[in-house]
Amino acid sequence: MFVLKATMSLLYQVLILLTFIYQVDSHASGTNVDGACSDLIPQHGFGSQNSPPPYSISFSPTSFTPGQNVTVALTSTSTGFKGFMIQARRADTNQNQDPMGSFYIGSNSQLACFGKAMVHSSSDVKSSLTLIWTAPAASIGNVNFRVTFVQSERIFWSNIVSNVLVEASSASTTAASTTGSTTAVSTSSASTALSSTAFSTTSTTASLTTVTRVYANATTPKNSCTMLNVEPYLIALVSGLLFTVSSI
């Protein structure tokens, strides 16, 4: 009975040791990391570093359109990293924060989190790594790349956020909106100018009408009076001449 208990205890300890070895080996090779998909925190049993990370995240180009490829570079500024996990998420944290787009499998990397993240494939020390991210075919807005860098089981920096990668369609919409506002203001100004021109034209027409009326008042009555004063004498003269001729 004693031997059986001792054997069971030994088997239990061996099982725990094998489980630990499997987990360490899995994390070193980048497998069995799905537990970190939601928050990018390695399941190592230790907390993330609070100091600034000795790593940088850059990408090219600085804007994208749906379906476009973007090159992402992970670079060490001092000590290299053994492991990593990278995801792309919407920059607006008020929107859905599920990982977006997909990654091409390259050297020292493999897919994780159902194809929505990229992780290391070996524990070799890396000073830099270049990845290719493909934006979804549909518009998602601006995004950030979120990366966890692992130096060792105990030392890692989790969920480091890159600068904003701008979706070109979002930038165009903003520019178009601004241009539209400017055009509206210009149109309003043009309408005001046209109204002023119309007012000036009306004023000019009114002025011309007044001048015409003044001219008419200054000339027409004088001519009319002359015709009225001369006409009776001409009629009388012609009548006299006709009477004289008929008498002869």
Structural notes for this entry:
This protein starts with a helix and ends with a helix. A hairpin with a 4-residue loop joins strand 6 and strand 7. It has two helices and eleven strands. The protein has 248 residues and is an alpha+beta fold. The radius of gyration is 46 Å and the shape is globular. 43% of the residues lie in helices and 23% in strands. The longest helix has 80 residues, at 168-247. It has helices at 2-28, 168-247; strands at 55-60, 63-64, 69-76, 83-90, 102-103, 109-112, 117-120, 128-134, 143-150, 156-161, 166-167. The strands form three sheets. Strands 6-7-4-9-10 form a five-stranded antiparallel β-sheet, with no helix packed on it.
What percent of residues are in strands? 15-25%
Q: What letter string, H or E per element, gives the SSE order?
A: HEEEEEEEEEEEH
Unreliable runs: 11-27, 174-230
Q: Biggest β-sheet, characterized?
A: 5 strands, antiparallel
Q: Supply the number of helical segments.
A: 2
> How much is the average pLDDT?
72
Largest beta sheet: strand ordering: 6-7-4-9-10
Helix content: 40-55%
Overall SS class: alpha+beta
**How many strands in all?**
11
Cα end-to-end separation: 182 Å
Radius of gyration: 46 Å
Global geometry = globular
